Amino acid sequence: QVQLVESGGRLVQAGGSLRLSCAASGRSFSSYGMGWFRQAPGKEREFVAAVSWSGSSTYYADSVQGRFTISRDNAKNTVALQMNSLKPEDTAVYYCAAGRGIVGPTAQEYDFWGQGTQVTVSL
């Protein structure tokens, strides 16, 4: 299996930027597609972005397209989410997830999850 630990979440002003990081441990990290999800209080967990095992393909939710960028470094066993032009509606706990095979927006397709990191965007 793979263990995931997110970091980088904090309070940030609207319009600002933030970079989240997910550190993975496990011998097969490079074989997993990786995704970022988020969950705000009172709302369901929603898909944010995903990247294929090779890093050659990326996928984004419409709500973050053009603002967020997902990337991975298989040599360092890390995946990052660069968030720009942040909005108050981006406030949520952000989760890193790993899944075997083709990954997409469905949370049930992911096998492993991190503990989450809080991102708060103020007005």
What does this structure look like?
The protein is 0% helix and 50% strand. Strands 2, 4, 5, 6, 9, 10 and 11 form a seven-stranded mixed beta sheet that branches. It has a four-stranded antiparallel beta sheet with strand order 1-3-8-7, with no helix packed on it. The model has no long low-confidence stretch (mean pLDDT 94). With 123 residues, the chain is mostly beta strands. It has strands at 3-7, 11-13, 18-25, 32-39, 46-51, 58-60, 68-73, 78-83, 92-100, 112-113, 117-122. The protein has no helices and eleven strands. A hairpin with a 6-residue loop joins β5 (46-51) and β6.
Topology:
Blueprint lengths: L2 E5 L3 E3 L4 E8 L6 E8 L6 E6 L6 E3 L7 E6 L4 E6 L8 E9 L11 E2 L3 E6 L1
Parallel strand pairs: 2-11
Antiparallel strand pairs: 1-3, 3-8, 4-5, 4-9, 5-6, 7-8, 9-10, 9-11
Features:
about 120 residues, mainly beta, seven-stranded mixed beta sheet, four-stranded antiparallel beta sheet
